[in-house]
Every structure is written in structure tokens, then in C-alpha cells.
Model the fold of this input.
Amino acid sequence: QLVASAGGRAAAAVRSRVTVRGVGARLHVRAVACAPTTVSRGQAFSLLVGVQNLGNRAANVSAVTPVLRTTGGTVVTGEYTIVPSGSNPTSLAQGAIGTFAFTLTPSASATQGDVIADASASGTDAGSGAALTDGAADFTCRFTVLASPLVVIESFTLPSSVNMGSSFNLSATLRNEGGAAATITSVNLNFRDSGGVDRTSQYTVTP
Done:
């Protein structure tokens, strides 16, 4: 309120409303989502990170980094191959929310069990160049890592001798000794003589 006075008395008053805003850009990691939530070692899966600019200027985003920890707090990010999407945003306007996509693949020796996926973000204020950072998400996601499937031939049954040109039955029993389900897409048979010479082409195999 601005008051003008004359002779010690208020002669006029003008009122005005002023909105005060925070200065500059501000990055904020909102949430992390992962799918599927159960994976095997060596199996690629998707991770999405939502980042918002809560400031009143545009923000340049230089890095959004997934951070993976066991439920006991051990950082295991180094056990994964992490590939960011080429279409991830590089800047966020005032108030804008960006989705950053990644493909993660646990190594053959990745820690088994439950893993918590978090993320950090860093960048600069597009106006001032000031550094911006946020080290953790409001909402994380959890996924479970299983040992890779391991299919072995448990038994093999076939006659000890057959006549040339005659049919015979052959059966194989497979067992999955791994920690994750296995999908059998094909079973191939190879025939060799006692000298190790491949004779597979001399047989017709019908599953």
C-alpha cells in the first residue's frame, strides 16, 4: 500500500498485490518405476525416472542417474549395464515434468534378491548457469533378481540297436537347475558314430 499525505493527513492510498516467486530453476526427482518387477540375471528390463523443474526458469538436464541398492543399503549399480534412451529430455521448462527411460541388464553375477531402484538428477539453470542437483526420488521402485535358468539333460533313453530304415523312439528328460523359469523353444538332436563323425544328416527326426 502506498499512502500520500498532505499537512499530516492521508490524502490518497493505492493498494497493489505482488506475487513473490522462488528464483531460478530447481530439479526434483519425483518417482522411479521398473518393469517387470522380477528379472533373471542377464535379462534386460525397463526403468523410468520422472523429473520435474519446480523453479521459475528453464533447466538444462545434464544427467539422470539410476542408483540401485539392496534392501540392506549396499550399492549394486555397478553390477548392471545401464543404457539411457536416446530420446531422453535435455531440458525442462518451468514446471515441466520429463520422463527419462533406461534399459538395465543385471550381470551374470549380479546380487540376487530384492533391489531398490532410486535416481539422482543434475543440470544447470538455463538463465544463470547455476548448478542444480537432486540426489533421491520421492518414490522408488523395488524389483527381484533371480539366478539365470540352467537347463540340463537329466536322462536320455533310446534302444541299444536298431535296423537300418526302421523307426525308433528316443526321449530326453530336461531339468532346470537355475533360479528362474525357462522357456524351451527347441531341442536339437545330433548323431555321431563311435569315431566322432557327425551322422545327423542320415536321420529323419520327428518331434
